[in-house]
Design brief:
heterodimer, A: about 650 residues, alpha/beta, Rossmann fold, Luciferase, domain 3, 21 helices, 26 strands, disordered N terminus, disordered C terminus, B: mainly alpha, Na+/H+ antiporter like fold, about 0% strand
């Protein structure tokens, strides 16, 4: 039996895609919502489209103009998608944000985007906006997504707007069709405000052409026989683009949440999911905990199976040139090593085959067992987690991108994933690695014997997915988008010898935690340094679950307090000093009005201060990369989990 | 006819083998449930096709091969014995990875293991008397003074089968009390089987290397072909009877993969005559070795070939699981190949019956 070629729908704009999906996939389920353990409610492509069309007619009736930003404040649920259908089909611009939006962000977004009509998910949000009404002069209408518990103080229900629109359509209203005719690929489909790292959030202008180019370039293969589990926030472009991808291939999106994830994985048996590193960390932890609890025979079997999987895959990846190639290697030596790897693989094959079937398969079933692959994005995947899943046969592919690039720039290909990288740049996208200080292009460089590979610099890209700019912020736009159309990502990276992109960190100091929260370390460091006991400090936590700090204590302050220690090295050993500093840091956090995830949870006293020319620039600014490299081992220990066995020996 | 001096299997090997058989059959029992019997009743046509391939075609193939390749009578009997065997748990595991219906595979294993009590004596009676007479003639010619008499020990075979079924029953009981331990028993069985088989192969090959060289190619061909022809017939006969792809794959593997341990038990318990026993064990070892290799490759092939229809099957099945038994999945025109277009769930065994069209 031959598999039918996957016929993905391609359209010039999202509204057209929605229409074609309804025509082609008709009664197939487009989205499914969980009611109970084994009870999910599907909505078909046709029904979703018809409801969206009625909503669009209703929105037009309410005065929504073409190309007008419409607010959509809420989290993953079917009504969110219906609202998006409505917004797209009337030619407006979806301006989303999660339901936990702060007052400041809400005011900024609504006023800067000039939102007249907004969808809100919950009554709490409705009340929140009602409270801020005085500073939201342009906001006219609110539409509530969830059925209300009590009488509404203001706003209308989603169902009412749909009913209004349906009546209009029945009466022969053709304005929706006209609006759809009028949409051009370069029109905005979404205006996405990114969590501001400095100052206010910026509105990223993404066009229909941006997102449609993604559907053609992302190397996925989904069909109407696929199931996509959706857990990441829909208002992030990463989840959004993958849901649109699912719609274009006729796959069904199943909405799940962190609480029911484990069960839903088993019930839905997804074949694909967009995921974040956090999810794999949790699953990794859960699998290992399960192994710990299992009785000795099974534990032993798992250990053997993982050992075999590890070495078998390592050899397999090496033979297929999928190993992490950070340094150039001689052809002859590589060939020799390939021979050894081939031998090892053949020797392991029968054993691995058995253990793969008997043990690893049961582990894979925890992830539903049907996952063809998953793309992890929104933060770097820790190397050991990455390896763990790829060794046990769950292909976790890491991708790279930003909201500004709708979002995918690079992703590991399904056929040849290289662990530890984000894979090659997707087709149609140009890549440069540029020295952030001099602006010199390091890659591609024809004069270099290796073409500029392995050189570190800022990643700059040009391609059809790059945003139009920041909404009403020409200054900020010019900073990241140059005249030739190159977008400056602000990320440090390099190209490996097998042409995969490896991300090394940020050029800027912004810390992205593993849950995706952005943290600016400077304000926290400034606050910490206000303490009499702290001389210098650096906050870290890139891709980690929490923040930690390297602290240089102020010896004099401790001396004045009666501490006998004469050097920093001695002080670093003192438990009493540690307790004192801990209290001091906790106080600084509380007084600084930081958000919970901005709290410094761990710290380490250094035995020598940061020195100018070494760890500090001439202007006393921290050279973060130098410090990170110098204290690499200590930093890993800071973040090392307190309990549980290490998953594997470091090879 | 090559003579094997002394015993092919030393006493240690025999004990090892006995322990292995015990553990494997126990593990096999631990993987069965009463529900499997119900599935048998629910899909009589599929089970009949399976029955036909296992007890109809396989013995016939074995008989044909023995004749066509002109095997020694002892090896011929061993081959036919292998052909008449019921299915084992190995085929269930391979079926799982070949994206076939595990439910059907287990149902067939269960049914054939019980039916073997009746079918094996009958089939052996039907196919082996000619070869048995030949052995008798050889023995007489070799100097036995009319005292030697060689017949197929039907009663012994039935007793050996019953003996082998004891640990299976033990496994079934274990599963009723603890699913966790039943799972452990299953895994342990697989692991033990692998270790012991590898050990036996290595030691036998090392000790009797001249045997490897002296064995004529016909014997190797017979050992390889039995499994392969079984796969082929199972696959196409079930297709002829209109079985859906997932059942085709299950039947193919179930037909080609026989329960090797049962064969060893029968040979050791029912054929005490040394030279005959050696020949039969040797063929058993060869078959067991080759069938693991060939079914691994065959599984990989089926897995690839069945990727698309399996995905459709899974998707349709999960739709019904989540959206209710009455939910009907309609794929766009031309998405499904004609064979599964009418019933994308392919007559799901565990499901509530055929889809409403």
């Amino acid at each position: 039996m031959k598999s039918s070629p996957s016929k993905r729908i391609i359209a010039p704009h999202l509204a057209g895609l929605y229409r074609l999906a309804a025509e082609r996939y008709e009664s197939l389920p487009a989205f499914a919502t969980r009611k109970k353990t084994r009870e999910w409610e599907p909505i078909s492509f046709r029904e979703l489209y018809e409801r969206g069309r009625a909503l669009a007619a209703g929105l037009i009736e309410m005065g929504v103009e073409a190309r007008e930003p419409v607010g959509l404040f809420g989290d993953n649920r079917l009504e969110w998608m219906i609202a998006d259908y409505g917004i797209q089909l009337c030619g407006a611009v979806n301006t989303p944000r999660g339901s936990d939006v702060t007052d400041d962000d809400l005011i900024h977004i609504i006023n800067q985007a000039g939102i007249h009509v907004a969808f809100v998910e919950t009554e709490a949000l409705l009340d929140q906006i009602h409270r801020l009404r005085g500073v939201l002069p342009e906001l006219r209408e609110l539409i509530l997504l969830r059925p209300p518990q009590k009488a509404l103080s203001e706003g209308v229900l989603l169902e009412e707007v749909i009913r209004l629109g349906a009546e209009k359509l029945e009466g022969g209203d053709t304005r929706v069709a006209e609006r759809m005719e009028g949409i051009r690929p370069e029109d905005l489909f979404a205006l996405i405000y990114t969590s501001g790292t400095t100052g206010k959030p910026k509105g990223v202008m993404l066009t229909h052409a941006n997102v449609m180019s993604q559907l053609e370039a992302i190397p996925l293969d989904l069909s109407c026989a696929d199931r996509v589990l959706s857990i990441l926030p829909i208002w992030h472009i990463f989840e959004r683009t993958f849901e649109i991808y699912a719609i274009s291939s006729g796959a069904c999106n199943y909405y799940t949440g962190p609480r029911t994830l484990a069960e839903d994985l088993e019930q839905v048996e997804p074949t694909f999911m967009g995921s974040a590193p956090r999810l794999w960390e949790t699953l990794h932890h859960r699998i290992l905990a399960g192994v710990q609890k299992a009785h000795p025979v099974r534990r032993g079997l798992f250990r053997i199976a993982y050992f075999l999987g590890h070495h078998y895959h390592e050899s397999w990846f090496f033979l297929r040139d999928q190993d992490l190639q950070l340094h150039p290697s001689r052809k002859g030596i590589r060939l020799l090593r390939k021979g050894l790897h081939a031998m090892r693989m053949v020797l392991l094959l029968p054993w691995y085959g058995f253990f793969n079937a008997a043990v690893l398969e049961t582990v894979r079933r925890r992830a539903g067992g049907s996952l063809k692959y998953t793309i992890s994005g929104g933060g770097a995947l820790p190397m050991e987690i990455d390896r763990f899943f790829n060794y046990i046969g769950i292909p976790v592919l890491e991708g790279y991108g930003l909201t500004e690039t709708a979002p995918v720039l690079a992703v590991r290909a399904e056929k040849r994933p290289v662990c530890g990288t984000v894979g090659p740049v997707i087709p149609g996208t140009e890549l440069r690695v540029v020295d952030p200080d001099t602006g010199k292009t390091l890659y591609p460089d024809p004069t270099d014997p290796h073409g500029g590979r392995a050189r570190r610099g800022e990643i700059r890209v040009r391609g059809p997915q790059v945003m139009k700019g920041y909404y009403r912020e020409p200054e900020l736009t010019r900073k990241v988008l140059d005249d030739d159309g190159w977008f400056h990502t602000g990320d440090l990276g390099m190209v490996t010898f097998n042409d995969a992109l490896k991300i090394l960190g940020r050029c800027k100091s912004t810390i992205v935690l593993s849950n995706g929260e952005n943290v600016e370390p400077e304000p926290i460091e400034m606050r910490l340094c206000q303490s009499a006991y702290i001389d210098q400090c650096m906050v870290l936590g890139q891709n980690r679950k929490f923040l930690a700090a390297l602290v240089v204590p102020r010896l004099e302050a401790f001396g004045a307090d009666g501490f006998k220690e004469k050097t920093l090295a001695d002080l670093a050993e003192s438990e009493r000093a540690k307790t004192l500093l801990q209290k001091e840091i906790r106080m600084a956090m509380a007084e600084g009005h930081f958000k919970r995830y901005e709290y410094v949870r761990e710290f380490l006293m250094l035995s020598e201060p940061f020195a100018v020319g070494e760890e500090l620039t001439n202007l006393f600014k921290l050279k973060r990369h130098v410090i990170e490299a110098k204290y690499d081992r200590e930093i890993s220990e800071l973040f090392a989990p307190r309990t549980g066995a290490a998953p594997e020996k470091k090879s | 006819m090559i003579e094997i001096e002394g015993q092919l299997l030393h006493d240690v090997d025999q004990i090892l083998l006995a322990v292995m058989i015990l553990i494997i059959m126990f593990g096999m029992g631990a993987s069965l449930t009463l529900n499997d019997f119900k599935t048998v009743v629910r899909r009589p046509r599929l089970v009949f096709v399976g029955f036909l391939s296992q007890f109809g075609f396989m013995p016939l193939i074995a008989f044909g091969l023995a004749h066509a390749l002109n095997l020694d009578p002892a090896k011929a009997i061993a081959l036919i014995l292998l052909g008449c065997l019921p299915g084992g748990t190995t085929s269930n595991m391979f079926t799982y990875f070949a994206r076939g219906s595990v439910a059907l595979s287990i149902a067939m294993t269960t049914a054939s293991t019980l039916l073997a009590l009746v079918m094996m004596p009958l089939l052996l009676e039907l196919y082996t008397p000619g070869f048995a007479r030949e052995i008798q003639g050889n023995l007489v010619a070799a100097g036995g003074e009319g005292e030697v008499e060689f017949v197929i020990p039907t009663a012994n075979i039935v007793v050996s089968l019953l003996l082998v079924l004891l640990p299976v029953g033990g496994g079934v009981i274990l599963r009723r009390f603890s699913r966790g331990w039943a799972k452990v028993a299953e895994d342990t069985a697989g692991f033990t089987a692998m270790i012991v088989i590898v050990f036996l192969i290595v030691t036998t090959f090392a000790r009797h290397f001249n045997l490897v060289r002296a064995t004529p190619w016909q014997v190797y061909l017979a050992a390889v072909s039995l499994g392969l022809t079984g796969f082929f017939f199972g696959y196409w006969v079930s297709r002829l009877f209109g079985a859906q792809p997932i059942y085709q794959r299950a039947i193919a593997l179930e037909t080609g993969i026989q329960n090797g341990p049962v064969a060893f038990a029968i040979i050791l318990l029912s054929f005490p005559e040394q030279s005959v026993q050696n020949q039969m064990v040797w063929l058993g070892i060869l078959y067991s070795t080759f069938v693991v290799i060939s079914s691994s490759y065959f599984t990989l092939y089926l897995r690839k070939r069945g990727k698309f229809d399996w995905e459709v099957y899974q998707n349709t099945r999960i739709h019904r699981r989540l959206f209710g038994a009455a939910y009907c999945t309609r794929y766009p025109e031309g998405f499904l190949p004609p064979r599964i277009a009418g019933d994308p769930a392919q007559g799901d065994l565990e499901g509530p019956g055929r889809m409403q069209k």
